[in-house]
Every structure is written in structure tokens, then in C-alpha cells.
Amino acid sequence: MLRVLLCLSLFACAASSPSKSVRYDSPPTSALANRPQAWQDITVTNRRSNDDGEQLVTEASVRHRTLASAPGAAVDVVGTAVGSLFSGQQAPGPVSAQPLGAAKTDPEKLVVEAWIDMRVEDPALATAAIRAQVEADGGRVISENVIGPQNKASSAAMELRVPPAKAAGFQVWLASKGLIESRRVLATDVGKQLFDQELALKNLDVTMTRLQKLAEKDASMKELIEIENEMTRVRGQIERLKGENRWLLDRVSFATITLTLSREGGPVEFAPHARIHPGVHLSTLSLVDPGDRQRTRVGGGATIHIKRWLTFDFDLFPQRGEDSRAVVGTFGSALYSSFLGGGRRAFLNPYLGYRFGVGYLSGDTSAVLGAEVGLELYKHKYVQIGVALRALAFLREGRDTALHGQFGFEVPF
Description:
The protein contains 6 helices and 17 strands. It has 413 residues and is α+β, with helices and mostly antiparallel strands. It folds into 3 domains: 36-93, no CATH class; 108-265, no CATH class; 277-410, Porin, CATH 2.40.160.20. Strand 16 and strand 17 form a beta hairpin. Residues 12-33 and 35-103 have low confidence and may be disordered.
């Protein structure tokens, strides 16, 4: 009877709890599968005591996953649990979500360098303007080299240091001063190098402190000498690292710009390496008050041109009628017009000068003084063509004045 009652009870329980069938056609889906993930490297440290009471430290590097609970947020679900594996403690529950960007990050330590080649109208003037702009931006000029005279400089080179925040604006300003032909910018991250230097300095400071404590203890002379030698070595390493650290921080604090300036169109110089420039010319000599003499004579001559400020001319005019031949030999000096190109142009370079020398006219020899205005029609490396007009005074009894014109060319020698 008891058995019958027990069977009926079991049958009633089975009837009141109907079974449910579950299909396993596909593997179960994790609740975390659709949540964004990020990976971080952590180091877990475990401290425990052995039988002797000494503390043992175990470190393990673990690459674990953080899950973003919302855009810009993540939950660390593994870190503390992995730590508990080493400590034998029970893993705590989940922690509250923290933004992914909440961790404080140091700014990048970048060494910015730039190399710029450009063409300008006047390298000397551009150099002065660039120097003033760099100083206004809080930078400094490290080196400056201008090739050529102040008003005829053919090129220039500069090395500049400007704050990185002003570097972009400075390059924009630089583009307004000429034509930038090439530009290269390089930014190098030295953050790891600076971190390694700081870490090495901390370790050396600890070593120095320990050595100083050892030096304060009672020790033999030999041990003291060894300690002093070691302290000297460590002190030298500390100073060297501090110097390298200061130098690297200065490179980070100021961008370095190497600038090369070239004259627009290239320099115009008449055979700059030649000693002298000989030439020939066609001449005319017109007397202001000829009397019974022929007013105008046509002749020719030779020129020796050293620089524009030093020339020598010799002119010969044939006999006309009863009047004897005329000879004029003069030295002269002249200056270019700064307003009209300063002699740097290939065409039409005007100049003013004076002449003095000796002349032979109408059978008499006398000193000659004169003023000159000239124009270089064309100036090239291998030839120069020009015209000149001079007013000459023959300083003799019955003083004569004349206009002396020239047209000729010169070549380097």
C-alpha cells in the first residue's frame, strides 16, 4: 500500500511540472559579444608570506579586455579577477564604468625640424626681415651667412629656432617674402627617450644616496677610496644625463628651421673672377667753342675696366684740316644708381662718375678734368656693352671744353 502511494505521488509531481525542450542548433551567444572592446596590458603583483615569514612578490603581465558600456566608456571585467588568481582571494564584483579617455596622458614630445629653399629679390634685405620676425615670435637666429656685398648678395643661409606654436604661422609669413621652391618638415617623437633619461636619473640618484650612506659608515681606507671612485663615476653619469636631457628639452621647446635664400633670377656679375676687362670703343670729341677749328672729330680707343669705380680710357682722334690730332687719356671712377638696380640688372644699369688725366689738343698738352654719365646697355658674364657721355675741360691757356662720347664693349681677361 505504501509503495502504491509513493508511485502515485511521483506521478502527480511529474504531471504538474511539464518538461521543456531546448534546441542547440547553434552555439550559445555571449551577452558580451555585441559590446565594443579594447585591449590593455596590465601587470598584476601578488604578495604572500612563506613559512619563514618572508614576503614573496610575484608579478605577471596580462593582456586583458575592457568592454565599452557606452560610447566613450569601458568596464574592466578581468583585471581584479586575474589579480585574485595570484592572491587566492575571491574575485570582487564588476566595477563601475569609466570613460576610455579618463586616463591622464602626457602630450607628445616632438622635435620639429624644417628645411626650406626659396628665392627672393634681395637676400640681404630678406635676411634682415626674417631676423626681425623670428625675434618678434620669441625665437632666435643660430647662424646667418650672406654671400656677396650688402646690395649684391647672391644667396644667404640661416638657421632659426622658433617656438613650435609659431612655426606654422612663420612659414606662412615666409611665403609672402618670396617663392618657396622646396620645403621638408620632420617631427620626431622623443618622449620615450626623455622617459628613459628620467628613469635612469632616478636610479642613479638612488645609487648615489646609498653610496653616500656607505661613505658615512666606518670603513677601511681601501673601501672608502672604492666608494669615492664609484661616487665620482655615478656623479659623472648624472651630469651627462642631465645635460642630454636639457639639450633634448630645448630641441622640443624650439623648432629648428634651416633656410636657404637665393636671388631671384640669379646674380648678375660681370666676370667676377677676372682681374681686368679690356675693351675697345668708338669715340667722338665735340668742342664747345671750336673757333676756326673743326667742331667734331671721330676716333676710337681702348678701355681697361677693373671695377666700375676704377677704369682707364685712351682715345685717339685723327688730324682734321690744319689742326693736329687729339689724344685724351683719363682715369675715372663711378657709382651705380641704387634706386635703379645698383648695377645688378642685366640691362640698363646707369652710373655717374668723374674723370681726370692728360690731353693733347691743337698742339698743346694739358691736364683734363671731367664728369661722366653712363649706361650699361647689356651686362653678361662674358661681355659688357655700354655708352657714356663726358664733359671734359682742358686746363690750359685759352681753356677748351668738349663733349666726349663713347660706345664700346669689354670682355674678361
